[in-house]
Structure formats: structure tokens, C-alpha cells
Design brief:
Blueprint: H1 11-19, H2 26-40, E1 52-56, H3 61-72, E2 77-84, H4 90-107, E3 116-119, H5 133-136, H6 144-158, E4 168-171, H7 186-200, E5 206-209, H8 222-231, H9 254-265
Parallel strand pairs: 1-2, 1-4, 2-3, 4-5
Helix pairs in contact: 2-7, 3-8
The protein binds zinc ion (ZN).
Family: Belongs to the QueC family.
Catalytic activity: 7-carboxy-7-carbaguanine + NH4(+) + 2 ATP = 7-cyano-7-carbaguanine + 2 AMP + 2 diphosphate + 2 H(+)
Pathway: Purine metabolism; 7-cyano-7-deazaguanine biosynthesis
């Protein structure tokens, strides 16, 4: 099969789509983007092939496929990191990370590096009990994603001691992630890029979610990523979406439900092993 072309949209159309999202704030996006145009003349530029970048790799379909796109389509040198933060699904997530690390090392031996596994509870174990489900509904764990990305910035900066200059951090939120919290929105991402540039006193830092990078014309969802992955024979059934700790996907949690629907939307066979095999449309 021929490699699928990633769907692109105009910046105006993407901004228009963002106006319909309750967690997005177009005025903030425009203000931060104007800041970047003033400070460095651009908002985001895709690094040239061979540029070293840091990538947040969780073992989920979105992060695995995003990593594959950065390697295959853009020829970037990828330094992945995984955060062992106290999540229930850590073991199966790590299994996916290890599987795809082997896969990427084989297919891109000159570009892909072994992932760094960072053990940093997020939120801190001592306060996690305070952040009850009812309290964090609509926000998720406060600052969870910015903390993850900040660890990525520390890793990127630290690579300097090995003579590797890294100022690009990629993550992989998709369009619908912005429905659930400001921290996974385009607005949140732009704010994070500004924060890291200011905090580091260096305006060359770039922080983005590739599937949402408006400057690249992307406003992609999981089904778009799955279609691309299929066209390059990436074995996505080995990625991990489920929030549960069991080996197989539960088939009923939000992440599983979204995974099933995305395969349906992409009109692709879902080879994931589920404990509960009911079709997603039958789920509550
Ligand atoms: Zn599940």
C-alpha cells in the first residue's frame, strides 16, 4: 500500500474549528502567536531532517504513530521519554513502548534512540488522595501535561552534555483531546511553549503536538493517524490505550471506547485484544 498523505487544512479553517471548542481560547492563541512572531519571526517551524528532538512516548496509539511520522515523514532524530508517574496501566504501556522501541530501532537505526524511563510520580503520591475523581472532573490532574513536558525540557537540555543540542519537544494530543481539558488544547500547548521559552531565556524552544500543529496545516484525530499507520504497516494493535492495569484492553473504559470508534471511523479492522468484545456503539 502507498504511504497515506496526512490530511492538511488551511490555518484559517483550523482556527475556525477551534472557535467551536469550549476549552480553546482564540484570543490567547493569537496573543501568544503574536508574541512569537515579534520575538523570533515565526510561530513554529518543522525542524530539518536529522535534527534531534525529544518525544513524549506513552505507548498509546497517538504517541507511537506520531513518533513513526516524525521518523518516516520528517527524518528527525528521536530521543523518546516515558514517564512512570504512578498510572494504573504502566506495565502494559511499558510493554508497548518496549515493543515499538525494538520496531523503530530496526527500521530507523540511525534516527531512533532508546527511550529514557523517568520515574516521577505525577501527581505526587502524598497528595494524590486529595485529587479525587469528582474534584478533577473537567480538568484532569492539574498541570499533569505541563509537568510531563517540563521533564522533557530537562531531558532535552541535558542532552547538551552529550554534545546533542535539542530545543524541540513533541507530544501527540489529537483534535478531540482538547474537548476534555485546557491542558490538552491548542491554547494550553501555545502557553506551554511560551512558558518554556521564557523560563529558559531562549526563544528557540518549540513545544507542540504534531497532530494539532496549525502551522503545519494539521488538525488530526486518532482515525487520521490510524489510516496513516495502516499505510506504512505499523502494527498498531500492539499500542496501549486502556486505562486499566490488566494485560488486554478492557473494551469499556473511555480510552478503549474511543479506540474502537476511531478504528470504525478509519474503516479499518481493529486487531486489538479486548476483554469485552461488544461493539462500541452498544457501550453505555
Ligand atoms: Zn479500557
Amino acid at each position: 500500500m502507498k504511504r497515506a498523505v496526512l490530511k492538511k487544512k488551511s490555518k484559517e479553517l483550523i482556527l475556525h474549528s477551534l472557535t467551536k471548542k469550549t476549552k480553546e481560547n482564540i484570543a490567547i492563541i493569537k496573543s501568544i502567536e503574536n508574541f512569537f512572531i515579534q520575538m523570533r519571526g515565526y510561530v513554529f517551524k518543522m525542524p530539518k531532517p536529522g535534527t534531534p528532538v525529544v518525544v513524549s512516548l506513552s505507548g498509546g496509539a497517538d504517541s507511537v504513530i506520531t513518533t513513526a511520522i516524525l521518523l518516516e515523514e520528517y527524518g528527525l532524530e528521536v530521543f523518546p521519554f516515558f514517564i512512570s508517574r504512578g498510572q494504573k496501566a504502566e506495565k502494559p504501556e511499558l510493554k508497548s513502548v518496549k515493543y515499538f522501541s525494538k520496531y523503530f530501532s530496526k527500521h530507523y537505526p540511525n534516527l531512533y534512540h532508546k527511550p529514557v524511563i523517568m520515574s516521577v510520580p505525577n501527581p505526587a503520591s502524598e497528595i494524590k488522595h486529595l485529587l479525587k475523581e469528582s474534584l478533577i472532573e473537567g480538568t484532569g490532574y492539574p498541570m499533569r501535561n505541563s509537568i510531563i513536558i517540563e521533564y522533557g525540557a530537562q531531558y532535552a537540555f541535558g542532552l547538551g552534555s552529550e554534545g546533542v543540542h535539542v530545543r524541540n519537544i513533541f507530544c501527540s494530543f489529537v483534535a478531540c483531546d482538547g474537548d476534555f481539558g485546557a491542558q490538552t488544547s491548542m491554547t494550553g500547548l501555545r502557553s506551554l511553549m511560551q512558558h518554556i521559552c521564557i523560563d529558559m531565556g531562549d526563544m528557540t524552544w518549540q513545544v507542540t503536538a504534531l497532530p494539532l500543529e496549525k502551522e503545519m496545516g494539521f488538525y488530526l484525530d486518532k482515525d487520521d493517524l490510524l489510516r496513516w499507520a495502516k499505510s506504512v504497516d505499523l502494527p498498531v494493535e500492539n499500542t496501549r490505550s486502556c486505562f486499566g492495569s490488566q494485560e488486554k484492553h478492557c473494551g469499556v473504559c473511555y480510552a478503549c471506547k474511543h479506540r474502537k470508534i476511531s478504528f470504525e471511523d478509519a474503516r479499518l479492522e481493529d486487531k486489538t485484544k479486548y476483554l469485552d468484545t461488544r461493539a462500541s456503539k452498544d457501550l453505555p
